[in-house]
Amino acid sequence: MPTPSTKLPVSKLVSTAIDAEADRLFRALLHVDCEPGRQWNYEDCRRLAPLTLEINRLKREQDAVILTHSYVEPEIIYGVGDFKGDSYFLSQQARDSRAKKIVFAGVVFMAETAKILSPQATVVVPDRGSGCSLADSITGEGVRRLKALYPDAAVVCYINSTAEVKAESDVCVTSGNVYDIVAGLPEKRILFVPDRLMADNVRAELKRRGVDKEIVSSDGTCIVHDQFTAADVTAARARFPGLKVVAHPECTAEVAAAADFVGSTGAMMKYVKNTPAPYFLMLTECGLVGRLQVETPEKRFIGGCRLCPYMKLNSLEKVLQVMTAPRPDQIITLDENLRRRAARSIERMFELTPKN
Ligand code: 13P
Ligand code: SF4
């Protein structure tokens, strides 16, 4: 006997599937209102639903996974993402993935890291222009020049760096493990690239811990996080009693000192989820507030919305395009010798990251 649904005409079945998907998206994104000029009402979700349905179908057909950084638009994270999180978590997922294809909705250095760790997979990016002001601030040659000036230093690269820079480094770090890894290195002198502001935060944290190191850094900054000021924090605290201020270590040391908590985007989310407070000020890219509005709709966030122009180059349309007809520039390729050298610094990071 035919099932009731097979009695429906195909056009009706399609529109039923679209309605169900629109409903799923709408329920997930209902509370997101952090981005000026953007909201996810039912009509928006109905427009997005055919895209997410098709991308999810292609994932199964192609044996693909989609890794999404928390800063990309929420319809990507909650519509088609298989894994969502910070750079460390997504690197672990890339390392452990057995999928034939990895679509990285984030920025290019993250997709390169995925390719370094999962060379057997085809790794693609929705937009090759999704750079990063930190990763773009220094080349491998730039690191070699600094190494010549400080030959006794351990070279530590923040994961927001190119594969070339990682290949020149002794160990890679992320915002989640940087303090513990640098504190535990045997070398007294550390050459830290490419984030000057994170280097300032490492200096301050090691001083607090009583660890004696000399940190030399290159001169990159994140164009999103370098905008926040300690005066913003003071003004917000005056207006919102009981406010908790949560900052990323790419902010200045003055901002970090003024915050209640400093950590990776993953740690920032955990802190908010576990902390009772009337208001939160999130000193990071606005996408993280969007994730928190989805996952903790009862929490209240104050402050403006700062967007990373690189992360926001990702869209569902581009994810669909890269999965159907990728252009050569969207496929990550690396010289094998360079990949192996870069892999060593990331593997050392995994070894040195405290397990908890
Ligand atoms: P996280 O690894 O903390 O998510 O940071 C990545 C990033 O680019 C922050 O600007
Ligand atoms: Fe790079 Fe800053 Fe964008 Fe993060 S937020 S990807 S550090 S430019």
Per DSSP E runs of 2 or more residues, the count of β-strands stands at: 12
Major beta-sheet overview: 4 strands, parallel
Mean residue pLDDT: 96
Shape label? globular
Can you give the helix content as a percent range?
40-55%
Rounded Rg: 22 Å
Major sheet strand order:
2-1-3-4
Number of helices: 15
* DSSP strand content: 5-15%
In the CATH scheme, what's the topology name of the largest domain? Rossmann fold
Order of helices and strands, N to C?
Answer: HHEHEHEHEHEHEHEHEHEHEHEHEHH
CATH homologous superfamily of the largest domain?
NadA-like
Please supply descriptive tags for the structure shown above:
356 residues; alpha/beta; Rossmann fold; 4-stranded parallel β-sheet; 15 helices; 12 strands; binds 1,3-dihydroxyacetonephosphate; binds iron/sulfur cluster
Could you please describe the fold and organization of this structure?
By secondary structure, the chain is an alpha/beta fold. It has three domains: 4-131 and 312-330, 3-Layer(aba) Sandwich (Rossmann fold), CATH 3.40.50.10800; 135-220, NadA-like (Rossmann fold), CATH 3.40.50.10800; 225-307, Rossmann fold (3-Layer(aba) Sandwich), CATH 3.40.50. It has 15 helices and twelve strands. The chain has helices at 10-29, 42-62, 74-79, 87-96, 108-117, 140-149, 163-167, 178-184, 196-209, 230-239, 253-258, 265-274, 287-295, 316-324, 336-352; strands spanning 64-69, 83-85, 101-105, 122-124, 154-158, 171-173, 189-193, 214-217, 244-247, 261-262, 280-283, 301-302. The strands form three sheets. Strands 2-1-3-4 form a four-stranded parallel beta sheet, sandwiched between helices. It has a four-stranded parallel beta sheet with strand order 6-5-7-8, with helices on both faces. β5, α7 and β6 (171-173) form a beta-alpha-beta unit. The longest helix is centred in the first third of the chain and has 21 residues, at 42-62. The chain is globular and about 75 Å long. It binds 1,3-dihydroxyacetonephosphate (13P) and iron/sulfur cluster.
